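Help! Submission page says 'invalid entity' but I think these are all valid:
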Amino acid sequence: MKSSIRSNRRAATAVALGSVLALAATGCGDDGSGGAGDKGGEGSGKGTITFWDNNGGVRTDIWKQVIADFEKKNPGIKVKYVGIPAAGAQSKYDTAIQGGGLPDVGGVGTAMLAEVAVQGALEPLDGRLRKSSLNGKLSQNLLDVSKAAGGGDTLYQVPTSANNGTLWYRTDLFKKAGLDAPTTWSKFYEAADKLTDKGRNRFGFTIRGGEGAIAPALDAVYGQTGITSFWNGDRTTVNDPKNVAALEKYVALYKKDTPSADVNNDFTKMVAQWDSGTIGMLSHNLGSYQDHLKALGKDRFRGIPNPTLDDGTRVQVSNPVDGLSLFKSSKNKAAAWKFIEFAVSAAENSKFNESAGQVPANTDAAKDAWIQQAEPTKLAAEALNGADTKIVQLPYYLPDWNTISKADNEPNFQKLLLGKMSAKEFLDTLADQLNKAQADWQKNH
Amino acid sequence: MITEIAPAPERTVPAPARPRRGRRAWDEVPRWQIYLPLSVYLLFTLVPFYWILLFALRPAGSTSLVPWPMTFDHFRKVWTERSFGTYFANSVYVGLATLVLTTLVALAGGYALARFDFRLKRGFMLALLCSQFVPGALLLVPLFQIFAKLSMINSLGSVVLAETVFQLPLSMILISGFIRNVPYSLEEAAWVDGCNRLTAFRIVVLPLLRPGLIAVGSFAFVHAWNHFLFALMFLSDQSKQTIPVGLNTLMSADSVDLGALAAGGIVAAVPVVIVFAFIQKWLITGFSAGAVKG
């Protein structure tokens, strides 16, 4: 009897372990076909396509609505949605380009467009756009940014949304201190000083010193000097003496008018401390609008485009543009392109951007009522599309741009804040790396 | 008849070791000198946890330093709207399957390393150690291609296999250390009593390995539970993603819902904390046994 129980137990254990092994080893999977080398095909225009959202999670619900609308209008096409966390999107694309498993359509922002395009993974879209109902309906400024980010002459991304550098400020604190809105750089520096009261843990500004610090710093630098081009021939203007002086003035705010912990600020910490503390101004983009609304309510803050020069001249660096790309390896490009066209049509683009709090790329969508009611988005749209705005195109097309603007120079920016490096040394180092990367890029193009 | 009772042998009690000059005995140390540094350390460690609890339990927009009024909205949101229920189930599956596979294979491999001599054994041990220096990210593309060939992309099995493979070297080394500590003569005695090698191992050795198995198993579980990269790369369907990927989706490129993120963090941390609370006794024994005598 005992031995029978024992053997039953053994059999059960063996079955359980065997099941685990079998489940673990097989599972229902797919073969992940579709690497950068695959040529793909137009397909029948029907069937299932896969869409990777490069900012999955927060935007999942709105994309699912867009997809539902699309499937209703195109009953022969199913869209498989894959939400990828923003932090892992680049790695996921890189792995799929090398190993296979690319989607038919993917969200590819300008910050990673060059790296994906240079590996031959993306389909040129100029021809398709010319024949499309979208032709003439997309913001030319954004199309220029998309083309520039992809390397110059070819369009690899249909822009969906634009972000814009925004100066968020606490209207209640400004009113109490009798300050004007920080619409110019002079007013900005004056407010940063006046709102600071270190003894009471109150600061005029919070500076981004950690991850992602370079682009906002460059925005502040070019905005103050009014230099309108990133390149002067083959050399970058980034270390122009005027820019050096502007950067010195900007980083001098650190510890004087900002918390000392700002040296480690990424956007999460920066936004969290602005939303929960008593800091006068925050330079971020439209993306944090909903966070501020939740934390402060609509009456205690405003978001305006970054300050202008005293004469009203507005110079700003190009902000990342979100967009959709068609992958060369897609075996159903006709259906995939239909989805892109639909997603960027006026109604859907408007719906998407209202939820994302960004500026629509479709010019008809940009006229919708919700933009007029969301002041920061409206002002950003005006600044982006304004004839007087000069946009300094950051070299997103350089395959090394991400490395240069992140791993290589973010630690240097922290040294700059801590006084271990001068503004000139910082910008000279950055300029050297950019000039070399530009020379390499020109050699290959 | 006279029974002579031998006098009891004189017991010599060794004199307590005298503290070295300049050193105080444990009992002489005032309690505050022990508890104060420990309290400071505890405070330093627990404040971030309090902060997470605070964000998770206070309403969005509140700046209060205590979670009052308390709300569970963030938990409801992550569990239902953001599919953390599904992610949780997937993570449990990946964690447990990795635990079982790692422990089983490490037991077999560790036994071979401990009990048999074979050619290139030292080289094999060295290779196991060296494999620990290779970051997982470097192997993503080859692993992806292998799983693609096996049609295992977008299957939880791919994550389980990858996690197991990465856990095995350390687990095998640890287990072989534990097995070496069990006298071989115990197994030999079991053979004399009629057991074959497998039965002797199961009846005699396995029960003595409990602390080691718990250490290795929990290590494998926690690593698989927390690992982000493989799940991100090999899984695409939202219904198959795991907790670490889910947590990352709570942070967009330029906006973070801190309340939801904190609630998600607690959902992710609680099972690990509970597991450790139950097994900490064996875990410490297991690791120290493997480390010192292995």
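Support: the input was valid. A stray whitespace character was the problem, and the output above is from the cleaned input. Chain B touches chain A through 49 residues (CB under 8 Å).
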